[in-house]
Amino acid sequence: MHSVKLVAWSFIGIRSNKGYRDDLAKVNPLHVVLVGIVGALLLVVGLISLAKWVVGS
């Protein structure tokens, strides 16, 4: 769950440096990479679906 929170904050881009360092001490880098890839894929699929829905309306 820490990895998901860390990646979500990274996508938004508003994390304090202290909070970022604290989160990095608690997570496995492999988990962060995997969660980041899944999050990016979900974002892309969501945007494509939204665009198709808007153009189809």
List the helices and strands and how they pair.
Elements: H1 2-12, H2 17-26, H3 29-56
Helix pairs in contact: 1-3
Descriptive notes:
By secondary structure, this protein is an all-alpha fold. The protein has one domain (2-56). It has helices at residues 2-12, 17-26, 29-56. Helix 1 (2-12) packs across helix 3 (29-56). It starts with a helix and ends with a helix.
Q: What ranges have pLDDT less than 50 throughout 5 or more consecutive residues?
A: none
Average pLDDT works out at 86
Order of helices and strands: HHH
Task: Report strand %.
Answer: under 5%
Bulk shape = elongated
User: How many domains is the backbone divided into?
Assistant: 1
Helix/strand structural class: mainly alpha
Task: Tell me the radius of gyration.
Answer: 14 Å
The number of distinct β-strands equals: 0
Helix percentage range? over 70%
What's the main sheet like?
none
Short description:
InterPro entries: DUF2970 (IPR021344). This protein is mostly helical and 57 residues long.
Could you list some keywords that capture this structure?
0% strand; 57 residues; mainly alpha; 3 helices
